[in-house]
Specification:
By secondary structure, this protein is α/β, with parallel strands linked by helices. The chain contains 9 helices and 10 strands. It is 36% helix and 17% strand.
Length: 224
């Protein structure tokens, strides 16, 4: 018998209405996960849409968006989420003391971690990591990133977002830093998710379909 056949079935608890949630790809379950404050994180939904956040089975929320971070947005997401939230606090356009203030704010709001974008300087990274008592996640977009300097500057977790090169970047990091926690983008294709995990990623960020795409599928079912 295989492990799958001998493993006890997992009980499923649903309601009459809350049974059609957005499920993360099954392939993500093969990841090792990252234990943070006693909670094991394998899948992170990459969205700020509260409706999606409230209706998916991700282990955590990756709340990073292409605007300057705002406390009102992080507060709304953290209050609405059932699961831990990692909040973007800048690193590109938003830098310096503002990133430190934002990091302190989201920690007090209840975030599990803060996320800094790739352009952030090591000095700024160090200032943020010293200001909060939650993990600091630094985004890595290139093989040329000096990972050792990032870790010395206070990065607790790496978030690899290198597009199609993501598995290669993860593999290169893992060769030199076997113990560092790595979150990575896995795309929407099962093969790419598995390839990224096999390269050494501990957890995967998943970008869900937009509400418009999800609603279109629902309307097509209604029309049948």
């Amino acid at each position: 018998m295989t492990d799958e056949q001998t493993r006890p079935a997992i009980p499923q608890v649903e309601s009459k209405l809350r049974h059609n949630i957005l499920k993360m790809p099954e392939e993500i379950r093969t990841a090792s996960g990252i234990n943070i404050f006693g909670r094991r994180i394998k899948s992170l939904v990459f969205t700020t849409d509260i409706a999606v956040i409230r209706n998916c089975d991700a282990d955590a929320v990756f709340a990073v968006y292409p605007f300057t971070p705002q406390q009102a947005i992080s507060d709304a997401i953290i209050k609405a989420a059932y699961v831990p939230v990692f909040c973007g606090v800048g690193g590109g356009t938003t830098k310096g003391l503002r990133t430190v203030s934002l990091a302190k704010d989201v920690e007090m709001q209840g975030a599990m971690g803060v996320v800094l974008n790739a352009p952030i300087s090591n000095a700024n990274l160090l200032a943020v990591s010293a200001a909060v008592d939650i993990p600091t996640v630094i985004t890595v977009v290139s093989e040329e990133t000096d990972i050792s300097r990032r870790l010395l500057s206070g990065a607790d977790i790496l978030n690899v977002a290198g597009g199609p090169k993501t598995p290669d970047i993860v593999r290169k990091i893992r060769e030199k830093h076997p113990e560092v926690p790595i979150i990575a983008t896995g795309g929407n294709e099962p093969d790419l998710i598995l390839k990224t995990i096999e390269a050494g990623a501990n957890a995967i960020t998943y970008t869900p379909p937009t509400p418009a795409v999800l609603f279109k599928a629902m309307m097509e079912r209604y029309r049948e």
